[in-house]
């Protein structure tokens, strides 16, 4: 049976008022937004212009803040006001301090993934194009977030599930129940040497 961490006794209080998961570079913040703020954010996302939605094979997403080029340069564009003003998600995330070492000092790029019930995403890395920190806000439902490692031994070239030639250990290092309206921030080695899905 899989062990899923909840926001109870596995977290220690962080100086910024957030909960840091013992032994992992992960911050978990339950009730990061209120129910009214969640309703507002979901409505604003749904009201986004249709061209903003990118359709993938089994899901769709929106990208805000600009597209990332193949060379890792962000073609910057403004973030939407519904994340910068009320309810000021960017300011709240910045206040956690985990983006202090990033070139902008705060989040400057957003990928909004929409998942239907039962959908998910395979274990993956966000890669070196981004500063080694990612914040994930769960809206509309809870979800389970898994962190994985590569297998210690290299697999034959081209056999890795990630396409990098390395195979992934399918046993999660850590699984978190992301409660509705919660925020999880993965940074340092949980970004650079772990995958998530």
Automatic annotation (TrEMBL):
Single annotated GO MF = dioxygenase activity
Instruction: Kindly list the places in or outside the cell where this protein is found, as annotated in its UniProt entry.
Output: Nucleus
Q: Which domain of life is it from?
A: Eukaryota
| Keyword set includes Chaperone | no
Q: Can you give the residue ranges of the Fe2OG dioxygenase domain?
A: 106-197
Q: One GO cellular component from the entry? A: nucleus
Q: Which UniProt keywords apply?
A: Dioxygenase, Iron, Metal-binding, Nucleus, Oxidoreductase
Report the sequence similarity comment from the record: Belongs to the alkB family.
Write the protein's name: Fe2OG dioxygenase domain-containing protein
Source organism of this protein record: Coprinellus micaceus (Glistening ink-cap mushroom)
**Highest lineage ranks of the organism?**
Eukaryota, Fungi, Dikarya, Basidiomycota, Agaricomycotina
